[in-house]
Amino acid sequence: MEALTAEVVVNTLKELGSMVLYIILGAVILEILVYLVLGKIFKSKYTLPYMLMIAAIFGISMLVIYPIGYEVRLAFTNMSLRHFRTYTLSWAQGLKNFGLIFSEPVLKQIRFFPLLFRTLLWTAVNVVFHLAGGLGLALLLNRQMRGRGIYRTLLVFPWAVPQIIAVLAWKGEFHYEYGFVNVMLKSIGMQPIQWMVSPFWNFAAACITNIWLGIPFMMVIILGGLQSVPLEFYDAAEIDGASRWQQFRNITLPLLKPVLTPAIVLGIIWTFNNFNVPYMINANELETTDILVTALFRAAFEYHRYGFSAAFAMVIFIVLFIIASVYIRTTHGLKGAYE
Amino acid sequence: MKNKTKQSNISRFFISPSRGDSPFKRMVIHLTLIVACVIAVYPVLRIISVSLRPGDRLLSTSLAIIPKDASLFSYYRIIFEKPFLLWLWNSLAITITTALIGLILASTSAYAFSRWKFPGRGPGLFFLLTTQMIPAAMLVVPIYILAVKFQLINSYRGLALAYSVSSVPFSIWILKGYYDTIPRELEEAAKIDGASQMGTFFRIILPLSTPALAIVFLFNFMMAWNDWIMARIMLQRENMFTWPLGIWTLAGQFRVEWGAFTAASILVAIPVMALFLYSSKWLISGLTLGSVKG
Amino acid sequence: MKKFLTVLLVLVMLVGIVSIASAEVNLILWTKEGEEALDWNKSLVEEFMKANPNITIELVKKTDVEVLREDFLTASLAGAAPDILWTVSDHAGPFVAADIVEAVDNLFDLNIYVDSAMDAVKLEGKYWGIPISNGNQLMLLYNKKLIAEAPKDTDELFAVGKKLTTGGNYALVWNQTEPFWLVPWLGGFKGKVFAEDGVTPTLNTPEMIATLKFLHDMKFDAKIVPLECDYDGADTLFKEGKAAMIINGDWSISGYVSALGDDLGVARIPKVSATGEWPKPYTSGVYFMFVKGISGDKLKAAQDFIAFVSSKEKQIEMVKLLNRLPAVKEALEDPLITEDPILKGSADQMVVGTPMPTVLEMRCNWDSMKPEMLAVLADTKSPEDAVKLMQSSAESCIKSLE
């Protein structure tokens, strides 16, 4: 068994230490280059900001731009198991790949539009419950009361637990015989549910797990936003005779918007792309629980359709991009961020 | 000076008192919150209880929180019979390096975005936002190939580099938002006194931004600490596994070692949760940075 | 001067010869084994390295067979592949299709191995792996304390089973989530997953419908199995004495020997009364595979290591430690096997087994059978509907392999 020994610790430090030195060296060289090129040759007044950013730009190019480029190229090939070492790269093959995404099943049975629909359903269900739960709890907590701190601390537990632990633990709890969900159902006289075998219930299990995981984040954000609403507004409204509901609609909600909109956008993006929960809860690899990103992973790693999955990935990205853009545009939510 | 004003602003926005709530209403609120807390905490208690079960009865239908003849057998096993400590060390080394590098890269770049309107700024910001939408599964194969070319597979360096860079876009957004709330007059004043641009950065902006910097460090740390998918691709030898991979080998596929999995989970989760809960005040203010108009 | 140069030349040559002779060879071996089998892997490697000090074998454990397959493909893609693999026979399909393993016809004397073991890795007229153990088959294991003798056919199984299934105890448990447990019964109903050409799926057949119906009835009519049961569940119930019989594979025998001792019995899966046929579990085994491109010193070292593991002595050691049947003909005749009731039972089952198809298309069959089998066993689909979907899934999967 490999163990943690002093030798390992020393090796780690050496390896990481030397890497940090290389990075510093590289960054300095890059900055000198930028300084010389932009500062001395072009005499640009933007030399300093570019110098500040060059290291990050370089890193992002390597880790984001190059892979995206590689995937785009891969989308125009037919690389798969049978065409592993030698494959064809052409416009025609690319068009064929994109066509296949929509015309043939992406995995065995599931086709693109049902998969898209299920992903949208997954996103909608989760975000709605996250918002409702988070808002409800935040409203309850936004008052002076005994035990407020304790409540807040306990309610944040699902967010504090590392996601992979929570997901694998929930997967265990949906076990037919030994998981607490069925044990509780049985104890109140109900029939145990086949969480891992039934398409409907497996999807529900994934939703339940993700909702449990996601409510605290919304609650904390909304609570922060609620606490920034000046009390005078409520007092003035009450003097004018507004009811609690009217106060909520006309004061709370609009003032929460600058906080809510980025949170909701993030929530939509993260839920849409959530890999861990649908993948791990799906113990029997039911295609009916897959969302777009898990289907993408399976197409690439379990079916080895590398060219096809690269095209698929591009389509997924475009879909999400459109959704996020539409949402942002219609709510004008990110005004102020670009200033 | 700046900090003091911020503090008194915050204390103005006090929590609303429960103006005239009836005792009945208060009781209902407390009850609802208690139920919500139970739902939030119970699964975690279950992890603890399974981890305390004696070795021969890991799968059972008992719901007792502390099982009969509870034993620390699983904890013993995970520490001494599995390379659990090694996994933790791997994670720790990679994560701290990641958070540091990410912080350095982001703090300088965010300053550029905040203080200059250089060509490419708008598209740059937009690009940083869109990187958040890219599914990780899409980048995994090319990053793997790149890492093999540079011999970064199965090494601390490869994963640390990958993590550092992937957290940079989000960090830049947060730091830029924070820097934007620091008025430029401060830097102007310092320049009049003879400081250089970078001098103001190091001596004025950075010290004032310590809350935001701490938050970014924390976010980077948490993201790298908890990641599974990138580690799965970059680390293929068990002696290099980070703890998410280690735990996945215990509970991922067919044979689930419940005792080892839950014991490991508790050992990992406790410090993480303690850190998280302790710093949750920071996190709230970090997430609402820029929206608190003071 | 001339003398000096000659001496220098001789020295250089000597150094060259010595370094070639004792050239350091480094082999990377990926294994899919875990637990006791992994321990045996480690001891083999250690023993071999001691006897051959210039060869270093680095043993890399892969969590399970899926991880090994995925990692090997990604590693080959990037040019970071290992040298030899210790894995299961059906990996030959994908690896041969991707052209990342070597054919072994000319690398080894294949006559010393059992025929059925070699058949399991035959593809496109060549052999692609060297067998280590033979079998990997499912069989009926039973607890003699709960049931004195194994039932001979399915009618007896149902009759006896109904009496045994009460109060949380079950007559029979098996992994209801994997089609690997379905195929023996399919064989018992005279069905096959492939047509004669070995690549066209034949899943929507009356035989498959009969098999699904049989498994459905076993659960819902005879009621001798749990409502939902995965590998872990079955394993635990049997070990705890709450199940009289379990259908599991040869890899699980040593675990049950430790748990039940002399109470463990091994027999063939009961004959299907409706057809009079013995169920035909898939047989395969564990194999060495050579990664494409291996040559020179590494190849020689790999061959030496494999010869070492294929020696009668090591094969018998494996039988003792892991209760697996050897792949080497000579070892199969050893009295250790013919006289041990458990091993005898295992060998007995293997005789009526059938080699597992190893073509790439088999994966499509597995993937297509699984969800439909789950649905039938969850009583959410009729066998007739299920087989239609099985066939269409398999066909679209095979189409996508192009």
Number of strands of chain A: 0
Cα-to-Cα separation, first versus last residue of chain B: 14 Å
Uncertain stretches of 5 or more adjacent residues of chain B = 1-15, 290-294
pLDDT < 50 stretches of chain A: none
| Oligomeric grouping of the chains | heterotrimer
Number of helices of chain B: 14
| Average pLDDT, all residues of chain A | 85
Largest sheet of chain B: none
What characteristic shape of chain A results from the CA principal axes? globular
SSE blueprint:
The complex is a heterotrimer of chains A (339), B (294) and C (402).
Chain A: H1 6-41, H2 47-74, H3 91-103, H4 112-141, H5 148-155, H6 157-160, H7 163-173, H8 180-187, H9 199-226, H10 231-239, H11 244-272, H12 276-281, H13 292-301, H14 306-331
Helix pairs in contact in A: 1-2, 2-14, 3-14, 4-9, 4-11, 7-9, 9-11, 11-14, 13-14
Chain B: H1 2-12, H2 23-51, H3 73-80, H4 84-115, H5 121-131, H6 136-149, H7 156-180, H8 184-192, H9 197-208, H10 210-226, H11 229-234, H12 243-251, H13 258-278, H14 280-287
Helix pairs in contact in B: 2-13, 3-13, 4-7, 4-10, 4-12, 5-7, 7-10, 8-9, 12-13
Chain C: H1 2-21, E1 25-31, H2 35-51, E2 55-61, H3 65-78, E3 84-88, H4 92-97, H5 115-119, E4 122-123, E5 126-127, E6 130-135, E7 138-143, H6 154-164, E8 170-174, H7 183-188, H8 206-220, H9 231-239, E9 243-249, H10 253-260, E10 264-267, E11 282-290, H11 296-309, H12 312-322, E12 325-326, H13 329-332, H14 335-339, H15 341-351, E13 354-355, H16 362-377, H17 383-399
Parallel strand pairs in C: 1-2, 1-3, 8-9, 11-13
Antiparallel strand pairs in C: 3-11, 4-5, 6-11, 6-12, 7-9, 7-10
